[in-house]
Amino acid sequence: MIDSFGVAVMEMTNPQYLLAQLELLLRIGVAGVLGWMIGNERKNRNKSAGTRTHSIVALGAALAMVVSKYGFQDMPDHDAARVAAQVISGVGFLGAGVIFVRNNLVNGLTTAAGIWATASVGLAMGAGLYVIGIASALMIILMQIITHKIAYFAQVASSGNIHMTLMQEEGAVERMRNFLEQSKVDVTSVKIHKNKKEEVKLEFEVVYPPGVDKASLFSKLTEMPGVVTISE
After folding, report:
1. Sequence ranges of the domains in the chain
2. Hey, which of 96-100, 193-197, 223-227 has the most confident mean pLDDT?
3. Under a CB-based contact definition with an 8 Å cutoff, are residues 115 and 122 in contact?
4. Within 13 Å, how many C-alpha atoms sit on residue 2's CB side?
5. Residue 206, strand partner residues
6. pTM
7. Is the distance from CB of 201 to CB of 170 less than 8 angstroms?
8. Which residues pair with 230 in a beta bridge?
9. Contact (CB, 8 A) for 34 and 56
10. Which helix (H) or strand (E) holds 208?
11. Whole-angstrom Cα distance, residue 33 to residue 46?
12. pLDDT tier at 1 (50, 70, 90 boundaries)?
């Protein structure tokens, strides 16, 4: 036991060993930086998983890969891929934490996919695939930017609420609902409140189609007969 400890100490003072360890540490550090870059794009879009999450995921994945490849070399027939394989499946719980559903719309899928891809970047860096890891991180960032800058890709369905006050008239609520559906706005639920001023307050939970012009839609709703107030 003492001899083994002495050998380990002597090995740690070997310049070649130290250089090898520094190179592995460089892999982990670069992975953390790449994860930070990917997370920074998400943070700038006010997403829940930002720089800290992505950088830690990338750094942790790189560390797992380094340990998987070099931490069991004293064991015969060790499988260097086993730890790395568990990283890909294990990081899924992080992605699940940023996905939520509202009004039949799924939000957070892009961020979840980004976390999963960031883990893969970390694994690539941990394996010493510098070109593949760095190029993949830049491609992920570029893809995110392009799909947000180009209007065709940026247009997605969105959920919201429309609050209206109408004069109490027969068929007024149904008329508003029909108009919204004709405008390709999906009405998921309606809340109706009556008061003593012969007015009806409505709250529509809606799903707007991709590329909807809300200003134009609200302007047309305001011009309809019986509409007193309208807001989001």
Report:
1. 2-154, 158-231
2. 223-227
3. no
4. 0
5. 160, 187
6. 0.60
7. no
8. 164
9. no
10. strand 199-208
11. 20
12. very low
3-state secondary structure of 126: helix
Looking at residue 104, its pLDDT comes to: 56
CATH superfamily for 158-231 is ACT domain (3.30.70.260)
Distances (CA, A) of 227 to 117, 163, 198, 219: 49, 11, 12, 11
Q: What is the pLDDT of residues 97-115, one digit of tens each?
A: 766 666 555 667 777 888 8
**Torsion region of 67: left, alpha or beta (phi above 0 gives left; psi -120 to 50 gives alpha):** alpha
Split at pLDDT 50, 70, 90, the class of 2 is very low
- 156 secondary structure, DSSP code: -
- Measured at the CA of 34, the angle between CA 31 and CA 35, to 5 degrees, comes to 85
158-167 β-sheet, strand order: 186-194, 199-208, 158-167, 227-231
* Residue 200: DSSP 8-state: E
**In this predicted model, what pLDDT tens digit does every residue of 154-173 receive, in sequence order?**
556 667 788 888 887 777 78
